[in-house]
Amino acid sequence: MDLLRSLPIGLYLEQPQTWLHKLDPRVKIAWLMSLLTSYTFANNQWRIILVVLLIISTILARIPRRVWKQQMGWLLTLALFVFLIISISPDGLGVKYQPRLPTSAQVITQPANGSNTNLVSAPTRDNKDYNYILFHQGPVKVTRRSIDLAIRVSTIIFTVIYSSNLYLLTTAPEEITTAIESLMQPLRGLKVPVTEIALTLTLSLRFIPLVLEEVQNLIRSVMTRAINWKKLGLKGSAKVWIIVAERLLNNLLLRAEQMASAMMVRGFTSPNEHQVKWHELSLKARDWLAIAILTLFWGARLFLGNLA
């Protein structure tokens, strides 16, 4: 078991370098925020378009199939499961719906002498009647509202998780922190410690693999001891895992102390005096093209994605 490689979400793909890798991280953040906010108050057609757009972008980027097959497969399975559950669940409306129009239209006719006014039933047109309940078989009932809710929730789950994962997949941690620091520069006027925040985020991203490594080592140490969990019982098993959790916390604190000592030995006093430029930010032709497409994206959202 290798937690550093088996996790399906949030891993950075170093090779091969796709065109998504080469985009400026600030542009990718703008695209990510657009994907995460454009489905707000949008119709279901636009939400489905976002899902299709993410899938097409992954294929066009030529990301190896072995990388996104498991990630996209699990997310599509989860989204489909949520869709099925919500579509057959009660829609929360206890109102008995009836047709809004009468079955036969009433037409007012005026006699020639103008003495009496008669109501005559005119034949209705042979159109399909509106049905609120789309499917009802035994305890299973699917309504228009439940289908609408199912599409909304399932597409939101896929869009939020996979768009964030695609960004992490094609953007190095150092590029992420550099882009965030660059976008937060206007906050310096409000005396916000932008550099300190960026440094903390960088150290946090660098510390995640160390946490996974410690968890992996402790799990392996428990497995190699061939503990008879049935013999220990619930209370004994809980004591073992408490000891493992305590050991994990001690190891993580030790790693953090070693990291702090390494920074002090190198003369690190403050982020402003010891800035390390991990990545040089510069907008190139492909970045301006991505910005132009983003403008068209929002134009399409305003014209096609609004609720009726």
Unreliable stretches: 122-126
Order of helices and strands: HHHHHEEEEHHHHH
Given the C-alpha coordinates, what overall shape results? Answer: flat
Fraction in helix:
55-70%
Strand ordering within the main sheet:
1-2
Distance between the termini: 51 Å
Q: Over the alpha carbons, how many angstroms does the gyration radius reach? A: 29 Å
Strand content: 5-15%
Describe the largest sheet: 2 strands, antiparallel
Structural class: mainly alpha
**Average pLDDT reading:** 79
What is the strand tally? 4
Separate helix tally: 10
Characterise this structure.
The protein has 308 residues and is mainly α. The strands form 2 sheets. Strands 1-2 form a two-stranded antiparallel ribbon. A two-stranded antiparallel ribbon has the order 3-4. Strand 1 and strand 2 form a beta hairpin. Helix 7 runs antiparallel to helix 8. The two termini are 51 Å apart.
Briefly characterize the structure.
The chain is mainly alpha-helical.
Write the layout of secondary structure elements.
Blueprint: H1 3-6, H2 19-22, H3 25-37, H4 44-60, H5 65-87, E1 105-109, E2 118-122, E3 133-137, E4 140-143, H6 144-170, H7 173-183, H8 194-224, H9 229-265, H10 285-304
Antiparallel strand pairs: 1-2, 3-4
